[in-house]
Amino acid sequence: MQPLDVALVRWQKADEISDAIGYELRRLGHRVHYFHYDAPIPSDANLVLTFAPYNRFIQIPHQLAALPPTRRPLFVHWNTENPPDLRIPWFIVKPISAWRTWLGKVRPTHGSVGRLSDRLPLAMLHQRMAKFRYVGEQGWVHAFFDCSEIYSAYHRRHGLPSAFVPFGTLAGAYADLQLERDIDVLWLGKRRTRRRHRLLERLRAQLSRRGVRLLVVDGVEHPLIYGALRTQILNRAKLTLNLLPTWYDCCLLTRFHMAAPNRSLVLGEPSLPHSSQIRAGEHYVAAPIAELAGAIQHFLTHTEERE
Questions:
Q1: CATH code for the domain of 21
Q2: Do 227 and 265 fall within a single domain?
Q3: When you count CB atoms within 10 A of the terminal residue's CB, does the N or C end of the chain come out lower?
Q4: CA–CA separation, 131 and 123 (whole Å)
Q5: What is the pLDDT of residues 232-284, one digit of tens each?
Q6: Share of the chain above pLDDT 90, in %
Q7: Burial of 125 (0-12, 13-18, 19+ CB in 10 A)
Q8: Residue 32's beta-bridge partner residues?
Q9: pLDDT tens, residue by residue, 88-115
Q10: Half-sphere exposure of 58 (CA within 13 A, CB side)
Q11: How far apart are the C-alpha atoms of 82 and 251, rounded to whole Å?
Q12: Is residue 178 assigned to a domain?
């Protein structure tokens, strides 16, 4: 295969997923040109690769659509975000997604409509209803992939050809540091929803009564951690907790690939089978919410089962 010039999106200045994808592309012999999602796409790219999305994604395909067909690179997107609630009928999801996509395309420089979209209350919507945006913006791509088998099937049912491409472990995100496992249970990541916040606090109280320590790294109690520090903390954690922000969320996929390579057992509530490569009872422990505290205590006291 001929080396490609790949324009790879960065959603923020420090973007470890973008860094990891770029690393693997270079290992395959391709040239990588990073660009910020809100900046011009590199002119020498013959393929544009995006993932997530985490912000106004529609500006990227909008740039590509403005190019002459002979100069337009291929556009490939790997979706790693969740769609709207899977129980919502498609006839409701589709028009809301189309409207949410239009709003994401409008910029403050686009006359009076653009200025209006950047003011309250419309400006607040740029930070909300994102799950509808993820659906509405995906019809612009040449090739579409999803990290979830369930979501990939969801998109195919509604007319978008989609293939499953699973998460993997980020290069450099794990190590065997031979540290003492002095953290009983670790929570990593923002709480995001009232559901997850409520479950976390309830479980914390139950574990406290059992004498089990829960370290919460959520950006509030302790700053969020990345890179070498996260690897170090995971090497100290006996168990890493997984709680879902919504009933159908695919967050287990990323949490598993952070914790398991660092030999911290992932334990949490049951998750939908987003990836046939990660199975409950084989790769991680799933227990009903009412039984989580007991399951945690069991694996803390039965070291041989945990390891």
A1: 3.40.50
A2: yes
A3: N
A4: 17
A5: 999 999 999 999 999 999 999 999 999 999 999 999 999 999 999 999 999 99
A6: 77
A7: middle
A8: 6
A9: 999 998 888 887 777 666 654 444 444 4
A10: 20
A11: 9
A12: no
Label the pairing between strands 214-217 and 183-188. parallel
Query: Two tokens at 92?
Result: 């409701």
Same domain, 157 and 195: no
Q: Tokens at residue 75, please?
A: 């556009």
Query: Is 129 in the same domain as 246?
Result: no
> For the sheet containing 237-242, what is the strand order?
214-217, 183-188, 237-242, 265-268, 285-286
Phi then psi for residue 154, to 5 deg, are: -60, -45
191 shares a domain with 67: no
Q: Is the pLDDT of residue 32 over 50?
A: yes
Say if residue 135 is in the same domain as residue 13: yes
The predicted structure's pLDDT at residue 65: 87
- Would you state the structure tokens that stand for residue 109, as one six-digit string? 């420089």
d(CA 16, CA 76): 19
Mark whether 86 and 45 lie in a shared domain.
yes
Distance CA 45, CA 33 (A): 8
Q: Is the pTM of this model over 0.85?
A: yes
Looking at this protein, which amino acid is placed at residue 260? A
